Amino acid sequence: MKKIISIPGAPAPIGPYSQAVLKGDTLFVSGQIPLNPVSGELETGSIEEATHRIMKNISALVETAGLRMEDIIKTSIFLKDMSDFATVNTVYASYFTKDFPARETVQVAKLPLDVPVEISCIAIK
């Protein structure tokens, strides 16, 4: 049986998907964009701000599912501009202490709501 996971108090997703799905011990987190779960506003003032918001959203979903950031085993990062790679990488790294997840980072032509970055992940208890 699968369990739908969402950030408490967050607005509904912008499409027909769940923020995250827990199946057994595995959590699948949908691509997160820099959407503030309280205000519903995008936080895209800078690439740092956007990345921090995404990582905070991921952390909230992981914790709501009863897991920890250390349980994340795989992430996917989608960038609108690969020149933001180093900055996103620095912010991303600050959310992990060691044994980083496997990951790929790709540049894409466009992201939902024209955001500069989107990140998804898989975590296992």
Automatic annotation (TrEMBL):
It comes from the Bacteria. This is RidA family protein. Belongs to the RutC family. It comes from Wandonia haliotis.
